[in-house]
Every structure is written in C-alpha cells, then in structure tokens.
Fold this sequence. Notes:
The complex is a heterodimer of chains A (266) and B (246). Chain A has 266 residues and is mainly α. Chain A has 11 helices and no strands. Chain B has 246 residues and is α/β, with parallel strands linked by helices. Chain B has 8 helices and 9 strands. Chain B has a 6-stranded mixed beta sheet with strand order 5-6-7-3-8-9, with helices on both faces. Chain B has a 3-stranded antiparallel beta sheet with strand order 2-1-4, covered by helices on one side. In chain B, helix 5 (133-145) packs parallel to helix 6 and helix 7 crosses helix 8 (230-245). Classes of the chains: A mainly alpha (266), B alpha/beta (246). Chains A and B meet through helix 8 and helix 9 of A and strand 5 and helix 3 of B.
Amino acid sequence: xxxxxxxxxxxxxxxxxxxxxxxxxxxxxxxxxxxxxxxxxxxxxxxxxxxxxxxxxxxxxxxxxxxxxxxxxxxxxxxxxxxxxxxxxxxxxxxxxxxxxxxxxxxxxxxxxxxxxxxxxxxxxxxxxxxxxxxxxxxxxxxxxxxxxxxxxxxxxxxxxxxxxxxxxxxxxxxxxxxxxxxxxxxxxxxxxxxxxxxxxxxxxxxxxxxxxxxxxxxxxxxxxxxxxxxxxxxxxxxxxxxxxxxxxxxxxxxxxxxxxxxxxx
Amino acid sequence: xxxxxxxxxxxxxxxxxxxxxxxxxxxxxxxxxxxxxxxxxxxxxxxxxxxxxxxxxxxxxxxxxxxxxxxxxxxxxxxxxxxxxxxxxxxxxxxxxxxxxxxxxxxxxxxxxxxxxxxxxxxxxxxxxxxxxxxxxxxxxxxxxxxxxxxxxxxxxxxxxxxxxxxxxxxxxxxxxxxxxxxxxxxxxxxxxxxxxxxxxxxxxxxxxxxxxxxxxxxxxxxxxxxxxxxxxxxxxxxxxxxxxx
Lengths: 266, 246
Ligand SMILES: Nc1ncnc2c1ncn2[C@@H]1O[C@H](COP(=O)(O)OP(=O)(O)OP(=O)(O)O)[C@@H](O)[C@H]1O
Ligand SMILES: [Mg+2]
C-alpha cells in the first residue's frame, strides 16, 4: 500500500518535472523561432532590413555600439535612473500613504486630486519638468518618480485602509497609540500590498525613464533609441529595445526576489 | 465579595448620518472580584458595545464605569484570535508587553512560563498558521494574560471554532482563567456555554440592550457543570427569557 503510494508520488513528481522542462523548451524555441524567422525574412528580402532591422546586423551593431558608443555606459545610466526612480517613488509613496492614513481629513481632502492625477498620463508632464529642473539626469529620474508614485500612494493607502478594524482594536486594548497601530499592525499587515506595488512600479519607472531620456537626449537607452531613429539607423533602435527587454526582465526578477524577501516568514 | 467594577446607568447611542442607533439603554451592573460573569443576549443587541465601554475604548453616551480595585488593567479578548501572521507565537504573545514598553526579563520569562504551562512551548518560534484553532485561541489568551490584567473581557472568544473544539476550548480557557484567579466578563450568545462556565449570567434584551435578568449559577457539589441536574433548569430559564424578546 505504502509502496504504491510512493511509486505514484514519484511518477507524479516526474510528470511535473517533465512538464516544467517542456515549458522551458517551448519558451526558448519560441524566442529562437522569432529571431530565426526575422533573420530569414530579412535575408530573402521579405522585409526591408533597413526599416525592420535584422538580428545578425543587430548583433554586429551591439558590438559596434559597445566599442564605439559606450553602450555599457548608456545601459548603466538607464538602469541607474530606473532603480533610483523606483526606490524614491516606493519609499516616498509609502510615506505619503502613511500621512494620508494618519490624517483622515487630509485623505478626504486630497482624494479627488489623487484620482485625477492617477488617470492623467504622467509622461505628459515630462516636458514641463525638463523646463523646470533642467536638461539633465535629475529631470529623467523625476519623470520616473511621478509616473509611478501616484499608483504607489493609492495602492498602499488602499492596503492600509483594508487592515481589519479588530486588529487595530486589539492594539488599542493594550493601550497602544496611533503610532503603535501604524507600526505594529497597519504597516506590517500591508507589506504584501506594498510588495505587489513594487513590481508595477518598476514597469512604470521604466516608462518614465525612457520618456525622460527621449526628451533630455544626452545619455541612456532612450537617447540611443531616439538618436537612432533620427539618423535612420533602425537596427540601433531595435538593438536598444532588445537590451531594454533584457533589463526589464532582470529588474522584474529583482523585484520578485525583493518581494520574496519581504514576505519571508509569513 | 467586593465589587471589582460597577456600571452605573450606562447608555450608548451610535450616531450616523442618516440615523441614530440606540445600542444600550440604562444598564447597571456590578462585577465582583474574582467572579466569572457571563453576558448573554440576542445577536446584535449591544454585547460587544458593552465590553468596549467597560474597557474604556468607547465612551458611554451617559452613565459611568467605576473601577473599584486599582490598578485598573483590562485585558480584552476579541471574537477572533487576531494573531499576527508576521510574528511568531512568542512575539505575538509579547505584543501587549511591547506596546506597554514592559519587555523586562521578568515579564518575558512569565510569557515563556505561560506558554509552557498551556502546552505551546514547542510552538514559540513557529508562526500562527501552524497552529490549530484551539491552540491559536490559547495563544491569544496568553497574549492577554501576559500584561497581567486584573479584569478580563472576553467577546465570544470561541465563536470562530467548530462545535467540538469549541466545547473543549471553552472548558480549557475558563479553567485557565480560574487558575490565574482573574475576574472575567464573558460575552456569548451560547446559553449552555454561559451556564457551564460562569458564576453569574446576565441576560440582555434585544436592542436597545437592557438588563433582563441576572442569575446566580450554583451546581450540586460533585457534578461537572454540564452533567449537573440544575444545568437544564438554568438553560431553560434563560432560553425562555431570551425567547420572549427575540
Ligand atoms: N461603530 C458603530 N457605528 C454604528 N453602529 C454600530 C457600531 N457598532 C455597533 N453598532 C450597532 O450597534 C448595535 C449593537 O452592536 P454590537 O456589536 O454591540 O452587538 P453584539 O450584541 O455584539 O452583536 P453580535 O452578537 O453580532 O456580536 C448593532 O445594531 C450595531 O449595528
Ligand atoms: Mg459582538
């Protein structure tokens, strides 16, 4: 009886493992097929490589850009701006959410403004920011911050407001102050919400950074993209976008790891 | 027996934009030192409100609470255990001490001792999700006892448990309260639980809650409460009193 159960179990595990491998293989082949077809279509002139790019050319460009155009520097700038923007908006956003939670009057007063700001496409503000802050990296980071901070404030505040009244009452029964309620219940109970906001924030922060770089036009992948399209080197544009994809994947992984670290022990 | 606590003509209204809810109307009641007083009443009549008022968390609309034995430290156990998922059992048990800034060596070892005494020692460093409903309820009681309150307020502390666990946990928790020689006010809507556990049972009317009757519970010596001949009598008496107004 026991033996058949363990046999069944190992078969089950094997099945799961096989499935996992199959999914991985499919994912990789999909990517390979995408680039393969792209390359082939360019070689047989089904598409114009001048306009649509060509993977082999992009690879050459990548090496060229790395050697002659300081590609690594541009990557570092974009990544740095994105992470900085993301950290600032997460920390500042959480802090603002705390203030609004603390002062119900403030929350009620500001609520309609937050809702309007939330639906406003924040990147529309980027040109103004550049005029105000200057044509520099700070303006790019600022753009990244404003694109993601409103969502952070709103989602963290929702998390705070959803914390069970009885949990708060419990802290009160021990004579806890409002600060105790915030630090002992409301904040720790909302960490899953905050962790979820992190992932969304990283994506939004990237949007802000790229739009900022389009406009500031000095360094970064956003600059390479806009410069490449101006001088009609579409393969540069494509190369930069591919690198951007890789960065996004990397940063997403980072966010997930951060999330797991936040949630450990729950 | 001396009185621990007196409620004098307590009334409570809740104000909302569209209406005023009268929850409690003129309740006067005393709680004696060392007794376990149950409060039964139809659901929604104002039992939780009454406990909140006793604890000082909510002010009454009129009337006053006199606490006759100082220091007046109140321990409150809510309808659910509300153990925090991000804290270990030990950290949960220390929550009150932490808030009251009383994390002394002595108090910490008191918490260890309580956990050991009530069978949770090996779970000290585990998280609440590993515990059964009954164990969680015990952990919640220890969290309350840790700050050494002299009055315990229990608001349907077993209502989240299934029936069988509930019988067992109710006996267990009341025996802990007796062992620790606490004064306790115990809210429930389960008549048999009230009769089995307490020295006196106060019966409230439907909302607005008024005091309907109060019964001294005494069983023939040598019987377990639920097996004593008087159990049914008390049960039927209180059941009828509740039924009239339900
Ligand atoms: N904060 C509040 N604001 C407005 N009305 C309230 C509030 N709290 C309770 N009430 C109302 O007061 C009445 C009594 O509520 P209370 O929670 O004290 O009853 P209860 O006897 O504990 O009920 P239950 O058996 O469901 O636990 C109910 O009608 C409830 O709707
Ligand atoms: Mg209640």
